[in-house]
Amino acid sequence: MTTSAPRQARAIERREHLLDAAAQVFAQRGYSDAQMDEIAAAADTSKGGLYFHFPNKEALIAAVIGRAGDILRRRVTRAMTAAGDDPVARADAALATLVNTLAAHRSLARVLAAESLGSSTTARESVAKIEDEYVALIADELRAALASGRLSNLDAPLDPELTARAWVGMVRSLLTAWAAGRVSAPLDRIYPELRRLMLRSAGVPLESNHLATHAKE
Fold first, then answer.
1. What confidence tier does 212 reach under pLDDT thresholds 50, 70, 90?
2. For residue 203, which of 50, 92, 153, 183 is within the disulfide window of CB 3.0 to 4.6 Å?
């Protein structure tokens, strides 16, 4: 039991190192052009060592995207908890944390952006699952905000699901352009304007809200 714990810790550390290297190569080359021997070289290991942990490239991209989802989930959960009980503040914290976290992990932002429309069915489905998770999460907070009367300045009825999908889509579009280098300004300068547009669309008085900054572990 005692001797297996350090061995297990080393195995986890090794796997994380391989995923870091894979994320960098996938970000630079894309899934289709990336080769397992390139990833092995980037991780300073043999091709056999890489295959020991991941049987094929499909399994490797799925693990990279899955880990990105885990990182986002942990940080978003923490940020929403810190935001308190106000559903609008919780939704605001979730979206800001998505942006801030991916801004700090540009290679992951590039992988998620590229593989959402890439050639790997596994990768596309994995990215779509992450996006759907946040659409559902934001929609739940918008429903709670409507039920509590928090969104009282609406000109027309608000559809929580449609609004949540639009918000997450706007964030994805911004991150995709930024990750591809089509947007040169820092995200912390661009996102506040996007945030204002999103909150206005739900009739939220901007002066009563704050930009969430809970993005660090």
1. very low
2. 153
What's the CA gap between 9 and 202, in Å, rounded?
A: 46
Mean pLDDT confidence for 126-143: 96
Q: Hey, how many other C-beta atoms are within 10 angstroms of the C-beta on 202?
A: 21
- Tens-digit pLDDT profile for residues 70-110: 999 999 999 999 999 999 999 999 999 999 999 898 899 99
State the pLDDT confidence band at 206, using cuts at 50, 70 and 90.
low
Structure tokens at 198: 């999103």
Instruction: Write out the two tokens for 6.
Output: 């350090």
pTM over 0.90: no
Cα torsion angle, 38, 44, 48, 54, sign: negative
State the first-to-last Cα distance of the chain, in angstroms, to the nearest integer.
Answer: 30
> Are the C-beta atoms of residues 75 and 215 closer than 8 Å to each other?
yes
- 138-142, long-range: CB within 8 Å, 24+ apart, which pairs? 138/91, 138/94, 138/95, 138/163, 138/164, 138/167, 138/168, 139/163, 139/164, 139/165, 141/87, 141/88, 141/90, 141/91, 141/94, 142/87, 142/91, 142/202
Q: In this structure, which amino acid lies at residue 193?
A: E
Q: Which domains does the chain have, with CATH numbers?
A: 61-208 (1.10.357.10)
Angstrom distance (rounded) from CA 71 to CA 111: 14
- Return the half-sphere exposure (C-beta side, CA atoms, 13 A cut-off) of residue 198: 28
**Residue that wins the pLDDT comparison between 208 and 120:** 120
